[in-house]
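#struct-pred
JK: can someone run the complex with nickel (II) ion? inputs below
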Amino acid sequence: MALLNIVLDDDQIMRKKSKPVDKITPRILQLLDDMKETLDDANGAGLAAVQVGVLRRVALVYDEDKYIELINPEIIETEGKQEDIEGCLSCPGKWGYTNRPMKVKIRAMNRNGEIETHEGKGLTARAFCHEIDHLDGILFYDNAVRMIDESELEEILKKDKEAE
Ligand code: NI
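RT: done, structure tokens with the ligand placed:
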């Protein structure tokens, strides 16, 4: 396994549409393993292959202490609405409020080539939407309701902690 370089949002590749995976090859499995190591190291909630410079519809989402591997993920159902703060490993120093569905059901292939469905709510639902957006060249701040700066973020996190 290897740690991969995370591409930043000013790189034009981030705006490109990723291509579907038609066959699980050793290269795709290697990509998943390396992305897992990279995401673990960066402590993120999710990572799309484009963020490590690979234009393939592959992404990882961290959920309940494990990484869900998503190949050719598609949203098949959404429910409700949420507005919360989002950031991205490719956009250091940028945070903003985005509108996302509260619950999301997706369909994706796993590393064995099997089609699975996954349901996520709250943070996981946001991560599913955020990563699938990456595969279409969309960044979270494209549709942010409002961007916030670091001091505002710290203020909000502090208040959340006090409320716990
Ligand atoms: Ni991101």
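RT: quick notes.
The radius of gyration is 16 Å.
The CA atoms of residues 64 and 120 lie 11 Å apart.
JK: thanks, will look after standup
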